[in-house]
Amino acid sequence: MEVVSVTGEGNTQPKSVENSNAYKGKRKIMIIVVVLSISLSSIFYLWSSSNTAITVNVMSITIDVYMYGNNLSLPIMTIPIPYNHETLYGGSIFTVRFDLTNDYRNNLTLLSNYSITSGFAIKSISPTPPLVLGRDKTSYFQIEIISPNHNYVGNVDISLYTDKS
Amino acid sequence: MYFNMSGIIESPTLVFIPLTELIILYVTSFSVAIFDILWWYRSYSRLGIRLRDIFIFLRNEWKRTIYQLLKYGIFHKKILKDRYAGLMHLLIFYGMVILFISTSLIALSHDILKPFFGFGILTGDFYLNFEVWANFGGIILIAGLVMALYRRIAKNVKLDTIADDYIIIGSLLVLSIEGFILGALKIYLFRNNFDEYRFVEWWISFIFPYFGIHTINGIQLYRNLWFIHIMTAFAIAAYLPFSKLSHIALSSVGISVKNIRPRGELTTPFLLSEALVSGDFNFKVGAKNVSDLPLSKKIEALSCTDCGRCERACPAVMSGSDLDPRVILQNVKKTVYDGNVGMSAIVMSENAAWACTTCQACVEECPVLIDPHSFVIETRRNLIMESKISKETVDYLNNLTYAQNPFGGVPSERDDLLKYAPKYENSMDVLYWVGCMGAFDPRGKENAKKVMELLKKGGINFGILGSEEKCNGETARRIGEEGRFQELVNQNIETFKKYNVKKIVTSCPHCYNTFKNEYPKFGLEVEVIHHSEMLANLVESGKLKVKKSKETVTLHDPCYLGRINGKFQDTRFILNSTGNLIEMKESGPKSMCCGAGGGNYWYKVKSDESISHLRMKQVMKTNVKQLAVACPFCMAMMEDASRTMDLSDKIKIKDVAEIIMENLVE
């Protein structure tokens, strides 16, 4: 080894080793895989978007129970139902389940007229109204709802109407 | 208290994305996660480490592993030493950790718990806290990435920047910004008053009306952006093994498994005493090829992040030699699986191998506990085995063999100093180890006399060994001549045992380090201190009375006293007691080497400028007229620099002992 040269005669640069061909090859393959994956995913996404152009997101559902004869702007009962983990398509049907307890001072009759947020429709209510709900009694309800045929995000309000028995 | 219209606080996550599109998320994220885990495992299995070995290691070393991961990884013990880069890394690291946890919680709540168990965990106060933290994580991640980008663009520090660096930083920045826009758009499309907790996204959400975005087109925009977000994350994760981001997985392992030993102790490849008894000299010393490196070194190389801190601290790099610790580590990393890649042919040049001063500035700087100089030592050991050494090195080693000192001086010359101190006897408290520089170098001898005089004045019951003293082998070991080193160790230990030595005071930090950190492995059990510590104690206790002069002085910390053994205070105490210490910018742990260490005092290597000249320029910036040293090699190097730079009349170089002597009050 020749190390007898003195300072000032440097001009030597540390030499970086090139990445091996095997490494470069693997990197190239990975880049191709990534590009292909993104391309395929994009195609799938475009297909999915065109087939599911409408998405409906119900963030929460509120059941308001009104009583004829009372002030109809103030519900006698309100049942909040969290509902935001599923993205629906336009026109799809989803079901809401809840317990309705009559904590009013009289027996109540649930009438067959109801309303729902614009764009949504109620397909069915089970048990089917009209029906009588005794004082302090609880009944289990299922409401099938049809989602709107346009993009929607927000809450859904369902108004049910009752009368004193 | 905040509620949405139904009175419930809950995360509206994964909205607007139908199942068909969620499939893209599940397929890409699961496949890339498996790929990354397999790559990580393959990185080590290709080195011969199997899953079983990992489990056994963790079972035996789990405490140390967790402790080191927390200390050096999670809490950034070493990373923060560089303030800008440390803060930058801290922000990026914690930003990514917070966002990773957030994403995991979303997946747990929305992809597992809600569909399968009918409930989520991102509700109520927990959800509000979650959103605050997620926004905080995003904003600190962006701040860290902007700092990283600025650092690359501004070029205030020397960085080895390649296109990949911009691609990675840019991709992460895009990913973070996408995340914020998605969150803000979600708020805009369905605003709850409790969304104010998402304090960044809340304010961004007000910009959308200005771009004509409403519910109908906003949802489609959200879906498109979400898809791009998923693809960005996928691309980054897939490219991770080929980018600098690979350090996330590899450096974590490196810092966790590193066996942290005293910095001043080199590894012992064999025990000469055992070999002499068994007659088996068939052991492997040093590394000819990368494949010869110990497994621990290969793991270290894999964990190199290419940050360049070692490169910027290395005096050999500054001097323009072809040694570059970063390049060495990267070269090993690139060839670690390739087998027969020559350490002194491809990884580094022979000149580079000899240019290392073993000052350990690189070790001090490395944020992931790599010891770059040990790669040089392994290479040198092989060069010695193959006799690929310079004539000066041959002379040096021959002198050690025949005269037990590197100067080739007659051993009896050491007895000259017996005129100034008694011969050591069993009953004495302290052995003053004069050292080869103290015995044979005129300037060193002058200083040794002063130290002895001060020890006498301080009432220390000490003696010297005279011609019974032999070089302690420090430089031989660092040159790579382990056998010669151990011969000297065994001879010296025999002498110490003969005289029942209990305490050694050295003037040379190299001797100090080797006695303190390397001799115990060979059976030496004595207290070892440097003369600066002994003299500082004498001054502090009043046994040596000094006056404080008006002189200003700067201090050159010897590497083997300061950075390697953490002794910074004694020299400073002495200088502040006798005058006014003006610190150099490069002081303490960041002190620059004088250029003599690792054998460089004894031979020359190719470089553009001498290290001692570079150091002297730093000294001259302080505008003082005195430079204090505490090492005979530093003394010789700095005096040589002052002479050759024609600065002899501008700066005087003195040992701390000489400074005490000048200010002694009789």
Describe what you observe in this structure.
The complex is a heterodimer of chains A (165) and B (666). Chain A has 165 residues and is of the alpha+beta class. Chain A has two domains: 20-51; 55-164, Immunoglobulin-like (Sandwich), CATH 2.60.40. Helix content of chain A is 19%, strand content 42%. Chain A has one helix at residues 21-51, and strands spanning 55-67, 77-82, 88-89, 93-101, 108-116, 121-126, 131-133, 138-146, 152-164. In chain A, the strands form two sheets. In chain A, strands 1, 2, 3, 5, 7 and 9 form a six-stranded mixed β-sheet that branches. In chain A, strands 4-8-6 form a three-stranded antiparallel β-sheet, with no helix packed on it. The longest helix of chain A is centred in the N-terminal third of the chain and has 31 residues, at 21-51. Mean pLDDT of chain A is 85; it is low at 1-10. With 666 residues, chain B is mainly alpha-helical. Chain B folds into four domains: 19-255, Up-down Bundle (Fumarate Reductase Cytochrome B subunit), CATH 1.20.950; 272-388, Orthogonal Bundle (Fumarate Reductase Iron-sulfur Protein, Chain B, domain 2); 404-538, Rossmann fold; 545-662, Rossmann fold (3-Layer(aba) Sandwich), CATH 3.40.50. In chain B, the strands form two sheets. In chain B, strands 2-1-3-4 form a four-stranded parallel β-sheet. In chain B, strands 6-5-7-8 form a four-stranded parallel β-sheet, with helices on both faces. Chain B is elongated. Mean pLDDT of chain B is 94; it is low at 1-6. Classes of the chains: A alpha+beta (165), B mainly alpha (666). Chains A and B meet through helix 1, strand 1, strand 2 and strand 9 of A and helix 1, helix 3, helix 7, helix 13 and helix 15 of B.
